[in-house]
Amino acid sequence: MQANETDFGPHVKDIAEALENKLDEATIVEELRQYVENYGIDLATAKEAIVRKHYGDPRTLQASAFLPLANIKADESSVSFRAKIVSVFSKEINLKDGSQKTIFEGEIADGSATLRFTVWRDEFTAKPGTILEVTNAYSKGWKDRVDLNLGDRCRVREVEDEALAALDVPAAGSPTAGSASDVAGLRNGMGSVTLTVRILDVQEREVTVRGEPKALWSGTLADASGSCRFTAWHDHKLQADTIYEIGNAYVREWQGIPELQINENTAVGTVDAELPSLEELAVGTNYTIDLLDERGGASDALLEGHVLAVREGSGLIFRCPECNRVLRSRQCMVHGEQEGQPDLRTKLLFDDGTGSLQLFLNRELTEKVLGRDLDSCLELVRENYSAEALTEELEQALLLKPLTVEGYTRSDDYGLMFFARKCQPAHNLDVPSVARQFLAALEA
Ligand SMILES: [Zn+2]
Fold first, then answer.
1. What's the pLDDT score for residue 6?
2. Phi–psi pair at 251, nearest 5 degrees
3. From the CA of 322, how far away is ligand 1's center (Å)?
């Protein structure tokens, strides 16, 4: 949108009043144009500068340039507001060129609304409770939400404001729309997460951040509701088989699976709490497919259901020696014609009555299902001059059979995929009831 006289309308009046009408409106418009259009200065700063230049007091400017957070709409290129920081944490993101950048995320409130914000600059030192005056931020819509972005053009300053200081913003970690009370409730994008968990395993790793080696700690944590992977960007001396209360953590997805992120702003302390033992938690969490679908994935899930189809691409496959992709007619979609490496896998349509997903069994599990190893499969295919015999064996072993699978699951454009680490026949599954549910779902 191009700035013109009518856009400046209320601001011209605002300046005129701050200068006790000692400057005519045409001059104000002319100066505003200079500052905003020629020099690219944001409106709020320009207004203050003009008032100061003419010996007025910028504090007498009406806060008309500042919008209540509730009035900020999605995709506005310049918004200004005053609000109090509810939570803030730094996080590392990967840029397209492969480098990493630190950004800051959190929630900010002014009594009219609480919005998420992201600071795209290297420095941001404001802490929860700080009142900020922000000019020239921009907003983005995300689902039903409006998110604020503080970029390079934005001006941020800490201010005193009695009304905002008295505002009772929820303490970090209290249940808000973007928070979870247990591990199963974690969703990508959540901030200010407080949980009591048992660390199941933790490993130190070294990564390169902006050319510098940096240590981080990753592993699995769990509570009675479920388990998830975590990454700690700060040495909180986490120990396996210890119960911690973790405050002000946030959630970021990795390959579609929510992962808890712990940084230097995260409060980490050991607590006496009742949680299942390491052995009980380590077996994974029972899920239904509809819950996995809603959650977007899980790193350690147990699932019971039925095989409804053995998909094409099961049995003997050939992989590109360069990138491991499955070859089609000896062609890799990236590397062209290749002498493929033989491998085994099984791709199944798996249904548990609440939904269905693509279930993948790796070579080891496929060998177990077939009772043959890869060499024996290659021999069978050579004898029959076709891979069909192998597919038939897979169908015979699996089709409409109840299975319990354990593994990780994630979703992408093709839907939910489950990669099994373990696969067992399910003996205690109520077959007719699941079949009925499946038929009902088909009829619906
Ligand atoms: Zn390839």
1. 42
2. -120, 130
3. 5
Per-residue pLDDT of 171-211, as tens digits, reads 444 333 345 778 888 887 787 888 999 999 899 988 776 67
Residue 418 near residue 405 (C-beta atoms within 8 A): yes
Torsion sign (Cα): 125, 128, 132, 138? positive
Q: To which CATH superfamily is domain 286-443 assigned?
A: Nucleic acid-binding proteins (2.40.50.140)
The DSSP bridge pattern shows strands 356-361 and 297-310 to be: unpaired
Question: Which residues touch 410 (CB under 8 Å, ≥6 apart)?
Answer: 255, 256, 257, 296, 297, 416, 417
Three-state SS at 390: helix
Residues 6 or more apart whose CB falls under 8 angstroms from that of 192 comprise 86, 87, 106, 107, 172, 173, 174, 176, 178, 179, 248, 250
pTM for the whole structure: 0.49
What's at 238, amino acid-wise? L
Ligand 1 centroid–CA 419 distance in Å is 21
Residue among 364, 365, 367, 361 nearest 348 (CA): 361
Residue range 69-166 in CATH 3.10.105.10: no
Look up residue 441 and give its amino acid.
Answer: A
Distance in Å, CA 343 to ligand 1 centroid: 15
Residue 170 has pLDDT above 70, yes or no: no
CATH number of the domain located at residue range(s) 183-283 in this protein: 2.40.50.140
- pLDDT value of residue 163: 77
Residue 217 contacts residue 234 (beta carbons within 8 Å): no
- Per DSSP, the three-state class of 126 is coil
Distance 312 CA to ligand 1 centre (A): 20
